[in-house]
Amino acid sequence: MKVTRDRIIGVGIAAGSLIGILAYGWVLYVYPTITLQATAFTAVAAMLCVLAWIGYTLATTPPPAPIEDVEKELEKGVESASAESSREES
After folding, report:
1. pTM exceeds cut of 0.90
2. Contact yes or no for 36/28 (Cβ under 8 A)
3. 90 or 41: whose pLDDT is higher?
4. What are phi and psi of 23, to 5 degrees?
5. 54-58 long-range CB contacts below 8 Å, 24 or more apart?
6. CB atoms near residue 54 (< 10 Å)
7. What is the per-residue DSSP string for 3-46?
8. Position 3 confidence tier, pLDDT thresholds 50, 70, 90
9. How far is Cα 63 from Cα 66, in angstroms, rounded to an integer?
10. Eight-state DSSP code of residue 80
11. What angle do CA 49, 40, 52 make, to 5 degrees?
12. 3-state class of 1 per DSSP?
């Protein structure tokens, strides 16, 4: 069986995750209150960061063009394409 780079990375991630679980369990056992507070704060802060990013994106993204404008551009494009093809056939 050939050991590929992806397999090595996968084993490293799996081993690191297991070590992280064991370390978190030990810290939770030794310092339960501060660990739970830190975990809850981190989870809430992560969710609020995602919401802030979504809000920022919505606030700074320009609105899309109205559908009527897009339809007019498509009609112009179809007309010009058909005019070009009829000129090429002549």
Report:
1. no
2. yes
3. 41
4. -65, -45
5. none
6. 10
7. --HHHHHHHHHHHHHHHHHHHHHHHHHHSHHHHHHHHHHHHHHH
8. confident
9. 9
10. H
11. 10
12. coil
Tell me the per-residue pLDDT of 14-29, one tens digit each, with 9 for 90 and over.
999 999 999 999 999 9
Sign of the CA dihedral 7, 13, 18, 19?
A: positive
Intra-chain end-to-end CA distance of the chain, in Å:
65
Place of tokens 């394409």: 81
Tokens 């339960």: give the residue. Answer: 32
* Separation CA 87–CA 82 (nearest Å): 9
Q: Hey, what amino acid is at 71?
A: E
Tokens found for residue 51: 């919401």
Residue type, 46: A
DSSP 8-state secondary structure symbol assigned to residue 66: P
Residue 20 corresponds to which tokens in the numbers above?
């992280």
Hey, what are 49's tokens?
A: 């960061």
